[in-house]
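During the reporting period the student researcher (J.K.) took over the structure-prediction task from the postdoctoral fellow and processed the backlog of single-chain submissions. One of the processed entries is reproduced below for the supervisory committee.
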Amino acid sequence: MRKRFILMASDPELRAVVATTTPEGWEMTEATDLDDLGDWQEVLLHRFMLLNLDDPEIADPIELIDTLRREYQLNIAVFCLGGSQERRDAARSVRADRFFDRDVGLQRLPEFFAQFGW
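J.K. obtained the following structure tokens:
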């Protein structure tokens, strides 16, 4: 299985930081909507997702997580960046995995790659 992850964000600065942090051998798939990724089988081929809860291009990040969990029935790790406490609580209720302030989450990226580098 290839080493792939999903970046759900439209912010070019965020994308640039993630791209420079991505180790050799990993592939980043970018989207702002699950439909952009294809069928659930395509999503399944990724090891984790970084989701920007504050991105205005993502129509409803809570619904996105809910669709991923309920409709697609996938349990890939979803790491959320940013978001108010209210939005984080809503994401937690639909089973997002971890929550980070944007800068902290970006600092932790090497850990995510190491953890999912099997």
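The committee noted the following: The beta strands are 3-8, 26-31, 48-52, 77-81, 98-100.
J.K. will present the remaining backlog at the next meeting.
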